[in-house]
Specification:
Layout: H1 2-23, E1 26-33, H2 36-51, E2 55-62, H3 64-73, E3 79-84, H4 89-97, E4 101-106, E5 113-119, H5 120-125, H6 132-135, E6 151-154, H7 161-172, E7 180-183, H8 188-201, E8 207-211, H9 214-218, E9 221-223, H10 232-239, E10 257-262, H11 263-268, H12 270-278, H13 283-295, H14 300-310, H15 312-315, H16 321-331
Parallel strand pairs: 1-2, 6-7
Antiparallel strand pairs: 3-10, 4-10, 5-8, 5-9
Length: about 325
C-alpha cells in the first residue's frame, strides 16, 4: 500500500513538474514580418506557444535582413519564423558556427518556389505544354495583349530582381525567334491581374511567378519544365546578374525558407524548440491559406485561428499531447 501511494505521489509530482515547466515558459519575442505568409506563421506560433506551452509571447515587427542581423548579433528576437535565408546565407552559417543561433527547420517544406507558369486548363487540354520545348512551338496559344501575331511572356516589373532572370531566360530560349514578345506588367498588381484576366477568359498565359502566394492559391497554375534541371552556378553567376554574356536555360533553384531561433531559446526551452522543428507548411497549403486571407481581408491573428480551427490534423502533429489539449480548449 505504501509503495502504491508513493508511486501515485511520484506520478503526480512528475505531472505537476511538467505542467509547471510549460506554464513557466517565460517571455518570448517572435518576429512578425510584413508579408502575409510570415505574419500568419508568427501568429500561429504565438497562439500555440501561448495557449499550449504557457509562454508570454510578444510579436515584434521585422523583415528578412534586419531580423536576421538582429537575431545573430543581439539575440533578439527569440524566433524568426519565416526567414528567406538565401540573401544572408553566410551570416546565418557563421551565426550557427558561433553558437549564436540555430536553424530549427523549414518554414516552407518546398522552399520558396519560382518559375514560369501556365494555367492548368491549358495543360489539361494539351499535357505536352508542361515543357518549354513544346511551348516554344505554340506562341499562338499565349497571345500578346496588343498584337495577335505574337506570343507573350510576362516578366517581372522593372526594378524587381526577378526581371533580370526572366529577361535572361527569354534570351536563353531564343523566344523572340519563336515569335514571343517580353512584357513588363508595370507592377506586381499588373502581373497578378494578368493571370486573373486570363483565367476569367480561359485564355493562354505564360510568365514568371512565385510561391507561396495568394494568386497561386486562387488559380491553378502548372510550372513549366525547362528541360534543363537546375544549374546552380550558372543561375547564381549569370542568370541573376545584370550582365550575363551567354545565358543558358536553368530551372530556378528552391529558396531555403527557415525558422531560426537563438541558441539560448534552443538550449533553455527545449519543448518550444521541438515544436519549431516540426512546424512546417507545404506551398500548396500556404497558397490556399493566403488566398483565404486575401478573400476575407484577414489579418494574421484571425487567419491563425482559422487555420488552427480547421486543420487540427496538421498542427496536432507539431505539438505534445498536453499542448494539443490546451490549444483545443482555447479554440473552443
Amino acid at each position: 500500500m505504501y509503495l502504491k501511494t508513493l508511486s501515485a505521489v511520484t506520478v503526480m509530482l512528475s505531472a505537476t513538474s511538467a505542467f509547471a515547466a510549460n506554464d513557466n515558459c517565460g517571455d518570448l519575442t517572435i518576429a512578425d514580418m510584413s508579408w502575409n505568409s510570415a505574419t500568419l506563421i508568427a501568429n500561429i506560433d504565438s497562439f500555440i506557444l501561448t495557449e499550449g506551452y504557457g509562454c508570454n509571447v510578444e510579436l515584434v515587427p521585422g523583415d528578412t535582413n534586419a531580423t536576421g542581423a538582429s537575431i545573430i548579433e543581439r539575440g533578439e528576437p527569440d524566433i524568426a519564423p519565416e526567414l528567406w535565408s538565401n540573401s544572408m546565407a553566410e551570416a546565418i552559417k557563421k551565426g550557427v558556427a558561433d553558437k549564436r543561433i540555430r536553424v530549427a527547420g523549414q518554414s516552407l517544406s518546398d522552399g520558396g518556389e519560382e518559375g514560369f507558369w501556365i494555367p492548368k486548363y491549358l495543360v489539361d487540354e494539351n499535357p505536352s505544354l508542361v515543357s518549354m520545348k513544346e511551348i516554344l512551338k505554340h506562341p499562338e496559344l499565349f497571345k500578346h495583349p496588343e498584337d495577335d501575331s505574337l506570343g507573350a511572356l510576362y516578366s517581372c516589373p522593372a526594378g524587381w530582381n526577378c526581371q533580370i532572370s526572366t529577361d535572361h531566360l527569354y534570351e536563353a530560349f531564343n523566344m523572340e525567334e519563336h515569335g514571343f514578345d517580353l512584357i513588363d506588367p508595370g507592377s506586381g498588381a499588373g502581373l497578378s491581374g494578368s493571370i486573373a484576366k486570363a483565367y476569367e477568359r480561359k485564355e493562354g498565359w505564360l510568365g514568371y511567378y512565385w510561391a507561396p502566394t495568394a494568386v497561386l492559391g486562387k488559380y491553378e497554375m502548372v510550372k513549366v519544365d525547362f528541360g534543363s534541371g537546375v544549374d546552380l552556378e550558372h543561375y547564381q553567376t549569370c542568370l541573376t546578374q545584370e550582365y550575363c554574356e551567354n545565358p543558358k536555360p536553368s530551372m530556378y533553384p528552391p529558396a531555403p525558407v527557415d525558422t531560426v531561433t537563438t541558441e539560448v531559446l534552443a538550449s533553455e526551452k527545449p519543448a518550444v524548440y521541438d515544436y519549431l522543428t516540426k512546424r512546417s507548411f507545404t506551398n500548396e497549403k500556404m497558397n490556399t491559406l493566403l488566398a483565404w486571407m486575401e478573400d476575407n481581408q484577414a489579418q494574421g491573428d484571425f487567419a491563425a485561428e482559422y487555420f488552427l480551427e480547421n486543420n487540427e490534423v496538421i498542427w496536432s502533429t507539431w505539438v505534445s499531447a498536453d499542448a494539443a489539449t490546451k490549444i483545443k480548449a482555447a479554440l473552443n
